[in-house]
């Protein structure tokens, strides 16, 4: 799909602020794809659609998780996580994107997942470091992203878990499992 067409489709689903974030994720994901040898076009399309379901009604998202037999434990960690896997489902069924690598990257962009392929890591990280993000620690992760994709993902996962802990929020375990997995891989390098 052409970039212009994809952006037109997603713009209708998002607020202006979220659309600007999406453009930042797109630029960042393309740069990371070039840096780490991933498919530029798949990175572009996955980034454009990563937040497709962000503003869908919570009830619709819950219903899709149940009807499509997605991991129902997601429902016990608040509604913020649902837009990622539900987004992948809607992008497939409403927009007609069937590429599994793109759909996987959209599915895993918020929580991460153990054994994330290259494209998943790129979208996960691009969402975290795009130019519009300005939370504490993001510059360190931006610098790491130039050097080592997995080390940068580890830092982003660590920051997210630390942030959620400080806020006394629930933590969906896949994020910690992803952190452990990448950290173990790194130590064994
Ligand atoms: N493992 C987790 N458990 C619970 N909440 C999480 C987890 N991982 C990320 N979040 C939260 O989900 C929210 C959405 O994050 P994210 O998908 O990165 O943003 P966006 O989709 O808006 O670009 C954030 O508030 C983040 O802290």
TrEMBL record:
Domain of life: Bacteria
EC number(s) reported in the record: 3.6.1.41
Keywords: Hydrolase, Iron, Metal-binding, Nucleotide-binding
GO terms assigned for molecular function: bis(5'-nucleosyl)-tetraphosphatase (symmetrical) activity; metal ion binding; nucleotide binding
Reaction catalysis annotation: P(1),P(4)-bis(5'-adenosyl) tetraphosphate + H2O = 2 ADP + 2 H(+)
A Pfam family annotated for this UniProt entry: HD
Gene3D superfamilies xrefs: Hypothetical protein af1432
SUPFAM superfamilies, per the entry: HD-domain/PDEase-like (SSF109604)
Ranges of residues in domain HD: 18-132
NCBIfam families: bis(5'-nucleosyl)-tetraphosphatase (symmetrical) YqeK (TIGR00488)
Protein name: bis(5'-nucleosyl)-tetraphosphatase (symmetrical)
Lineage, uppermost ranks: Bacteria, Bacillati, Bacillota, Bacilli, Bacillales
């Amino acid at each position: 799909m052409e970039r212009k067409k994809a952006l037109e489709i997603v713009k209708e689903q998002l607020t202006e602020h979220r659309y600007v974030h999406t453009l930042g994720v797109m630029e960042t994901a393309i740069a990371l794809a070039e840096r780490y040898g991933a498919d530029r076009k798949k990175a572009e399309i996955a980034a454009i659609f990563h937040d497709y379901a962000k503003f869908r009604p919570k009830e619709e998202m819950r219903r899709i998780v149940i009807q499509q037999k997605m991991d129902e434990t997601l429902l016990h960690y608040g509604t913020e996580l649902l837009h990622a896997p539900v987004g992948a489902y809607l992008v497939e069924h409403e927009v007609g994107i069937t590429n599994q690598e793109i759909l996987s990257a959209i599915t895993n962009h918020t929580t991460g997942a153990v054994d994330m392929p290259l494209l998943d890591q790129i979208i996960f990280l691009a969402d975290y470091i795009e130019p519009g993000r300005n939370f504490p620690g993001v510059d360190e992760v931006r610098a790491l992203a130039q050097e080592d994709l997995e080390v940068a993902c580890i830092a982003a996962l660590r920051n997210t878990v630390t942030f959620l802990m400080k806020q006394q929020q629930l933590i969906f375990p896949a994020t910690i499992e992803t952190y452990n997995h990448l950290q173990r891989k790194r130590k064994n390098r």
